Amino acid sequence: MKSIKDNRLAWRIGYLAASLGIYLMDQASKAWVVRRLRFRDVPLIRGVLDFSYAENPGIAFGQLQEGGSFGRWFFVVLAGAAATAVLVYFFRTERNDDRILGACALLLAGILGNLTDRVRLGFVIDFIHVHAGQYHWPTFNVADASISFGALLLAYDLIFAHRKDEKKHLSEQGVTSS
Q1: Rama region for 89: left / alpha / beta (φ>0; ψ in -120 to 50; rest)
Q2: Which one is predicted more confidently, 29 or 164?
Q3: What ranges do the domains of the chain cover?
């Protein structure tokens, strides 16, 4: 019979395997974009979604692009620290917190995907371009989407876990809320 500790480790390995899958999908999609779309845009849904090659030396949504070599390595160190923090949090989280474990797996995949680009190339390859009319969302990639969804899951959990803990605390004290 498996021990509880073995079961927790197996679940964590599963989440890390999913994270690896997302990381590989990110890197494969960027390699495909470099080979096929570097010098042309491809409209997928006219007026809404295009694949459009872009090099982003900055951070999210094209911010802080003027950092040069210092900026590149600063972002490498920052991403390395973020990945380490997420991994530590991942292993310290209880097994029954699937939303947090999933969020950490998404964050880790995205951070490492963009970190790989930054170390290898000095910039991050972006290619997904969403727009509607005159509004254009900044070009992004699979890693960026993974980071965004992971962050949203963590934010959701922080907001609603606090409420759940508050209700539990009140019910333990015999107070009901309406």
Answers
A1: alpha
A2: 29
A3: 4-163
Terminal-residue alpha carbon distance, the chain = 45
Give the three-state DSSP class for 3.
coil
H helices, E strands: number in the chain: 4, 4
The sheet carrying 135-136 orders its strands as: 42-45, 49-56, 124-132, 135-136
Residue count of the chain: 178
Cβ atoms 98, 66 nearer than 8 A: no
So what's the pLDDT on residue 95?
67
| Block residue for tokens 């990381």 | 23
The string of pLDDT tens digits covering residues 69-86 is 666 678 889 999 999 999
167: tokens are 């209700």
Query: Using one digit for the tens of pLDDT, what is the confidence trace for 29-53?
Result: 999 999 998 888 888 998 899 999 9
Active-site amino acid positions: 126, 144
pTM score, whole prediction: 0.81
Radius of gyration of the CA atoms of the chain, in A: 20
Helix, coil or strand: residue 124:
strand
